[in-house]
Amino acid sequence: MVERHRRTGGALVVAGLLLCGCVGITGCSDSGADTEDARSADSVRTLRLVADTLVDAGSSKARTSMEMANGGTRVTIRGEGVYDYRRQLGRLRVLLPQDPAGISEHRPITELLAPGALFMKNRGAGVPADKWVRVDTATLSDGNLVTGGVTDPLAAAEVLRGTRTATYVGETELAGTAVRHYRGTADLGAAAREASAGNKGPLAAAAKGFTSARVPFDVYLDEEGRIRKLRHRFSLVGGAPKDSVMVASTTLLYDFGTPAKVRLPAAGDIYAGRIAEE
Q1: What value, to the nearest 5°, has the Cα angle with vertex 261 and ends 131 and 109?
Q2: CA separation for the pair 238, 234 (Å, rounded)
């Protein structure tokens, strides 16, 4: 799976200033521009702290969707599960799309998310059914923001620690919940410097591995400042020179406080052999 997002085609497993018309008017004020600047600054500060708000919330259910576009090929990978923000542990059931010809379906992959590591069961050919594959996420060029076909919910939130610009779009409703919509751009390098210990390495790798460290995003926060929906847009190198894969990763968080019991595999349950290509 680590290599798949570099391919073209197939099931890739794997992102104003307000001007005051003051000419010729003595004592004109730029209060409008100052107010807009203040709002933008407040939005940046708010978004840089949303990961902490999730940690305070404890846990939640999560749904993920990752859309990958490369040339004329577009695939979507979906996941659903639970996440414990305090322990930085999650469990997701990931559904891969059919092969382009539509003649075969992939078994769901169970993924366990942990600080610095990704564990996968039903990884694919050559791996025994009762074994897990372990990947060190700091060694992945995208820091596992894309490789696993899902974005770790806490890592997704910690990307916002690197928010550089942000605009408050307005209030709306999401699945019956009133939310505030923000749009902006985050810098992965800055996010890595401010991230928790478990995400520093992966985000630093992503800052170097993507075609750009700047990540556009849209985020929706509820009245308590918790993320309800977060959409990143990543760009990474494709299978051909000067070819890029555009990835839109969406994370939905809900049912906060839901118990998220995640048990990591024992050493004897981790597969150490060669993983065959499918």
Answers
A1: 35
A2: 12
Q: DSSP state, 274?
A: P
* The residue type at 125: A
Where along the chain do its domains lie?
A: 4-14+32-264
What is the secondary structure of 117-157 as a DSSP string?
A: EEEEES--TTS-TT-EEEEEGGGSTTTTSSTTSS--HHHHH
pLDDT digits (tens, 9 = 90+) for 156-188: 999 999 999 999 999 999 999 999 999 999 999
pLDDT of residue 96: 86
Burial group, residue 182, by CB count within 10 angstroms (0-12, 13-18, 19+): buried
The fold of 4-14+32-264 is outer membrane lipoprotein receptor (LolB), chain A (2.50.20)
pLDDT > 60? residue 205:
yes
Q: Which residues pair with 218 in a beta bridge?
A: 183, 231
Which pTM does this prediction carry?
Answer: 0.81
